[in-house]
Design a protein that fits this description.
Layout (H helix, E strand, L loop, with lengths): L8 H14 L12 H8 L3 H13 L3 E4 L3 E4 L10 H7 L1 H25 L2 H19 L3 H19 L2 H21 L3 H19 L3 H25 L1
Antiparallel strand pairs: 1-2
Helix pairs in contact: 1-3, 4-10, 5-7, 5-8, 5-10, 6-7, 6-9, 7-8, 9-10
GO molecular function: DNA binding; DNA-binding transcription factor activity
Organism: Schaedlerella arabinosiphila
Keywords: DNA-binding, Transcription, Transcription regulation
Length: 232
């Protein structure tokens, strides 16, 4: 496993641990490294490791045996027919997060458009190009990463330290949601054009349009969340 040094540590830790589990040398039934060992190997805190392990347990990769530790349970994720249960179970927290995003993301978009330079705009465009490639392959894990990165770029363009910090907190809570939602094709089909519309507002330096497009995007995310409970 590689030491994690960049942003989006939760996502990178999750990907690192998935790679470890899927390695041919690791067998179902093997003991998984302890939380302490994982922190040392990856160079991250306990909270980040716990979050990743929790997701891996929910996806059927790991299981906890009381008094014994954590073990490799499987090498394939949960089937999509169980996603509806996950969305229903986590609905309250997700709705709370959407309320916060509805307030903050349009503001961040407005501020970002006011300050955005050509290099930053190119970062958004590059992100979208890679996301579209992942969408073609229905790569849920990659799409979750690009979606997270897209919104993080916007917050960082604002230069507002408090907004950036709040977004980092929200991002940690959204990790599981993003991982699950992009397993549903209709959600993939919705988010690509939404990001395109936001980028166009950046290109024309239209703050009002940017706010509007981001509000529409978050509203659609809320609708996707509702549909995910029934269509997964």
């Amino acid at each position: 496993m590689e030491i994690i040094t960049k942003k989006s540590a939760s996502q990178l830790v999750l990907e690192n641990l998935c790679s470890y589990i899927l390695d041919d040398a690791v067998k179902i039934g093997d003991r998984f490294p302890s939380e302490k060992d994982l922190c040392a190997m990856l160079g991250v805190g306990r909270g980040t490791v716990r979050e990743a392990v929790k997701i891996l347990i929910s996806q059927g990769f790991l299981e906890i045996k009381p008094g014994l530790g954590t073990f490799i349970k499987g090498k394939t994720p949960i089937q999509t027919d169980s996603l509806s249960d996950w969305f229903a179970t986590n609905e309250v927290e997700l709705q709370d997060l959407i309320v916060i995003r509805s307030a903050l993301e349009p503001l961040a978009t407005k501020l970002a458009i006011e300050k955005c330079n050509d290099n930053q705009l190119n970062m958004l465009k590059k992100n979208q190009t890679e996301a579209m490639k992942s969408a073609e392959h229905l790569d849920a894990a990659a799409l979750a990463q690009y979606d997270e990165e897209f919104h993080r770029i916007i917050f960082h363009i604002t230069g507002n330290a408090l907004l950036i910090e709040i977004n980092d907190i929200i991002t940690r809570h959204l990790l599981q949601f993003r991982q699950h939602t992009f397993k549903i094709k209709s959600n993939i089909d919705n988010f690509i054009p939404a990001h395109d519309a936001i980028i166009k507002a950046f290109e024309t330096h239209d703050t009002a349009l940017g706010e509007k497009r981001m509000k529409q995007h978050i509203k659609k995310v809320a609708k996707d969340l509702e549909n995910s409970k029934f269509n997964s």
